[in-house]
Every structure is written in C-alpha cells, then in structure tokens.
Design brief:
This protein is an all-alpha fold and 785 residues long. It has a domain of 351 residues. It has six helices and no strands. Helix 2 runs antiparallel to helix 3, helix 2 runs parallel beside helix 5 and helix 3 packs antiparallel against helix 5. The longest helix is centred in the middle third of the chain and has 333 residues. Keywords: Coiled coil.
Length: 785
Amino acid sequence: MEQMNYEKNVQYLKKQENLLKQELEQVQMKTKEEIITLKEELEKKKNQEWEILQKEQDENMKKKIDIEINKIKEELKNKYEEETKDKVEQIKQLTENDFHLKLEQYKEQIEKDKNDFINNLNIEKNNEIEIFKNNIEKMKNEEISKMNEENQKVCTENKEKDNLLEQQKKELENIKEQWETEKQKEIEVLKNEIYSQNKEKEEFLKQELQNNYNQQINQLKEELNEQLEEKYKYEYEIKIQNVLNRKQEENQQKWDNEKQQIIQMYEQKLLLQKDNIEQTLNIQNQQWQENMQLQKDKQIDMLNEKIDKLDMETKLLNEKKNELEINISLLNEENMNILNQNQNLEDNLKNNEDIYQKKLSILSDQNCKLEEEMKRIKEDHTKESEEIQEKFADLLEEEIDRIRKESESKVESYIKQYEEINEEYTKKKEEYDQLLEKANQNNKELTKKYEENIQKINEYEDMIKILENKTEEMVQKKIEELTIEFEKKKRDFIDNEKQVLLSNYEELLEENNRMKEELGIQTNITIRENEEKILEITKNYEMKVKEIEKDYEDLLNQYNNIKYENKEILEKWNIEKETKEKELKDLNNINTQLSSENNEIHLTYKNLEEEIIQLQNKYEEVKEENIFLKNEEHKKLTDKLKNLENINKNLMDVTEKERELNLKNVNIIKCLQQQINEQTKLYKEYTDELNNEIKTLKQSKHIHTDNTSNNNQKNNGYNDNIELIEENKKLKLQNEVISTKNDTISTVLDNLTKRLSFIESKIKEKDFGLDIIKQADHLQLQDFK
C-alpha cells in the first residue's frame, strides 16, 4: 500500500511538472507576442518621429540653401577648407582617443567585476559551508540524543522481559519443590497407614483365635457334661481332665504351631507387601525422578535455546540498531543537505528579489533618464533650430546691408580695380585649383580614415556580439551540464531513498514477522509446557488414585477372605468397618487436599494464561508502535516530496523572473544598438552630402567666370560655410548622443555579466543548479530564436 501511495504521489508530481511546463510555455508565448508588439510600436513611433524631423529639417534647409547658397560660397571657401581640415583632424583624434579610452575602461571594468565577483563568491561559499557544518552538528546531536532515549527504552523493555522470565522460572521451581514435598509427605502417610493396618490385623487375628479356642472348649465341656453327667461322672471327669490336659497340650501345640504358621504367613505377606510397595515406590520415585530430570533437562535446554535465541536476537537487534543509526545518520545528512539547500534557495530568492527590485529601480531610473534626455534633445533641437533660424535671419539681414553698403562703395572703385582683379583672379584661380586639388586629396584621405574608423567601430560591435554569443553559449553549456548533473543526482537521490526505505520497510516487516513467530512459538511452548505439566499432574494423581484403589481392593479381598473364614466375627468386622470408614475419610481428606492442589495448579495455569494475554497485548502495542512509526516515516517522505515540489516551483519562478529581466535587458540593448546604427547611417549620409556639395562647388567654379558671378560666388560660399557649421554642430550633438548611448550599453552589459556570473556561481553551489542554468539557457535560446 505504501509503495502504491508513493507511486501515486510520484505520478501526481509528474503531472504537476507537465502542467507547470505547459503554463511556462504559454507564458513564454504571451511574453514573446507582447515583446514583438512593443518592438513594432516603438519602431513605428521612432520612424514617424525621425521622418517628421527629417522632413522639417529638409524643408528648412532647402529653403535656406536656395536663398543663400549663391551668396556665400566663394567668400567662405578658403575659410571652410582650413576649418574643415582642422575640425576633421580634431574629430579623428577625438574619435580614436574616445574609442581607445572606452576599450580600456571596458576591459578594466570587466576585470574588476570578475575579481569582485570571485571574491564575493568565495566569501559566500565559506559562510554557507560554516552554516551547513553547524546545522549538521546540531542535527546529529539531536538525533543521537533521540537514539539514546530509544535505546534506553528498549533496554528497559528487555530488562522487564528478563525479569518476567526470571519470575516465571522461580515460580516453576517453587511449584516443583512444593510438589516434591507434598509427594514425600503422601508417601510417608501411606507407609504409616500400612504399618498401623498390619498391626491392627495381627492383634485382631490373635483375639479371634483365642475366642474361637475358648468357645470350642466350652462347647465340648457342655456336651460332655450333658452326656456324662449321669454316667461315668467320676471316671469321665478323670478322663475329661486327662483328655482336657491332652487336648490342652495338643491345642496348645496346635495353637502354637498354627500361631507360628499364621505369624509366619502374615509376616511373609507383610514382607511381600512391603517389598511390593517399596518396589512400586522405588519404581515410581525413579520414574518421577527420571521424568523430573527429563523435564528439567528439557526446560534447561529450552531455556538455553531461548537464551541463545535472545542473545542472537539482541545481536541482530544491535546490528539492526547500528544499521538504523547509520541509515538515520545518512537520512539526517540528506535532511540537512535538503534544509541547507532550501535555506540557500530562500537566501538566493531573497537576494534575487532584492537584486531584481534594485535592477528594476535602476532600469526605471534609466528609462526615465532616457525619456527625459529624449525630450530634452527634442526640445533642444527645436530650440536650437529656431534660434539658428532667427540668428541666421539676423546675420543675413546684417550681411545684406553691409554687402549693399560695401557694393555701393566699391562699385566706383571696382571699375578701377577690375583690370588688377582680372590679373589677380587668374593667379588666384591657379592657386585655387591647386588648393581644390589638395582639399580633394585631403577629403579623400579623411573619408578613408573615416571609413577605417567606421570599420573599427563595426569590428568592435562584432567583437561585442561575438563575446555576447560566446558568453551565451558558455552559459547555455554550463546550464545544460548543471541540469544533467542535477537530474542525475535527483534520480540517484530518489532511487537511493526508495531503496533505503524499501529495505527498511522489508526489514521492519521481517522483524515484525519474526517477533510474531517468536511470540507465537513462546506462547505455544508455554501452553505445551503447561499442558504437559497438567497432564503429568493428572497422571500422577490418577496413578495415586489407582494405587489407593488397588490397596483398597486388596484390603477388601483380604477382608472378604477373613469374612468367609470367620463368619462369626461380625461385631469385630463392624469395628473394622468403622476403622475402614475412618480410613476412607482420611482418603477423602487426602483427595480434598489433592483437589485443592489441583485448584492451585489450575490457578497457576490461569495466571500463566493471563501472562500470555499480557504478552499478546504487549505484542499488539509493539505492532501499533511499528505502524505508527511507518506512518510517521510516510509522512516525512510526503513532506520531503512537498518541499521538493515547492523548491521546484520557487526555482521555476526565479528562472521566469530572471528570464523576463534578461529579455528586457536584451530588448533594451537591441533598441540601443538600432539607435546607434541609425545614427551612424545619418552620420554617413551627412558626410556623403558634404562630399556631393564639394563636387558641386568644383563644377560651379568652371561655369562662373564673370564679375557678377564672382560676387554671387562670394555670397554663396559664405552661405555654404554657415550651413556646414550648422551641420557640424548637429554631427557633434549626434556623436555625443552616440557616446552616451554607448556608455549606457556598456553599463547595461556590465550589469548583465555581473548578474549572470553571480547567479551562475550561486546556482553551481547547489546540486540542482546546473539543471536550472540549462533550463534558463534553453528558455533564453528559444526567446532569441
């Protein structure tokens, strides 16, 4: 039944695990769908905002460019070339320095985080080991005290059993001694009675013979007197006297002879009776002694066998006790391991919850900061665009007024200087062509360097991705290894527990069956011994009764013989009868005594039966205790299974929370990477536009040759320089945004690496940690897929 219940519990746990897995899959699907929807919404919003901003910027820039390109180009070409060279070199140096600094900082932070993490892990492991040792020692001491108490109880019970056995032995010995004394008393009483009866018979026979003799003499005298009274009185008297004398002599002789013969016969009979009685008594004594010796030997053998059995049982009990102590110690160690695991899991859960809350707060703060920065950037952008438009309009008005004044003042002098200017123009044209070629070469070199920097950035991003993939693969492998080890240990632990419990259960069943058989054997032996004793007592009593009856029959035969021989002795027979009645009364008294003895024996038998009932009650109590212990063990097992279920549930909750956090962090990283890519694309587009504008300037130079074209080129060059300055400002802002976002990405990645390393180190300490890590990696891989 217990095995069936255990299997049912295992099946129920499996069903619950399947249900939990299904729920986890459903939750994962829902989270994936929500993440996809959120991503799509964010991308749509970002695209819409960027499109709106780009449209506004394009419209404003086109309007301004259409108005002012033709005015400022020629005046600001030289300035622009010099400024662009300086700025490009500065930008290159800044980008390279920032890149190297960030790499070094990132490496230093990774090393610091690793060292801190390793130190924290060592400290936590040492603390956990000390706590585990203390808990194990406490549990061992408690269990040793419990085992000592149980051993003391068992010892007291064994002592009580030994005392009961000793009392039973003493009672049996007392009963034997009483029976022997009573038997000896009965034998002595019978001897005295036989001796007194023989004496009485001798006296009685003597008296009868004398009376018969006197009666015969008197009869003869009377007859002779009647016949010879008249005749021959004198002679006859003489003759009578002679005859009487003769007869007296003859009678005396006969009497003496008969007396001697009777005495001899009677003595011979008495001797024969004595011999027979003595022989019978000796035979009975020998038989009784032999029976008693046999009984004693049997009892001694039985007691020795019982003692040997008890010794063997005590040895077996001690061995089983030692085995049980070992099993209990193992179970206690397992309980301590489970308790420590539970405590560690609870601590980990608490730490994870605290870390989760802290990270949530950090992420919420970061989100708030990012939102504020986005708002601030948008507001600054709008403000800067408005301010730039206002400033640009003011500058345009001022410069237009100034140009008008200068043009009016110079129109007059311009005609004079026209020829000089033409000559100078040709020279400057040649110089300008040279400068343009140099600028083109410098721009090409800058573009190459810029592309190299972009390649380096891409390589850096690829390196980050490779590191992320490697870390993910390593974590997945570790989690898989941990899951495999945890499943193996779990299976081995459950199998070992099953085997130990089944072996203990079988041993307990065997012990109970042995106890039952031994108690049944002991009860049967005691019942048989009591029955044998009762049979022996009844046999002895029947033998005694038969012997008494035989003696009585012999006496009756003798009495009948005497009666037939002496019919005239009725009066004396009555006396004998009275004596015999007295003897019968004595015999009745003896019978009453024997009956009382039988009653006492019956009482002892009842007492033995009561003792057997008490032993049976004790056996039932022991049986109930065993059942109670089995139920307690079953309850403990069910509690262990429930604790394991709760642990699994808590672990699944923790893994779900961590998975959600990882998904959120990964989504944040992806969004930031997308923003970086978008900004890099914008930066490339701006650089391409600048290159295109430089080409257009080159083409415009060949077309415009007249004086009017020279003025217009100056104005257009000036406007181009202003636009390029504004674009450089925008690019600086975008580079700053990219740097801030790269910093946030690096911090997020550092936090994630710290978190993963911390969780891995904490989980690896447990037996089931590898399984959990593998399950978490599996879930994370599914999410990435």
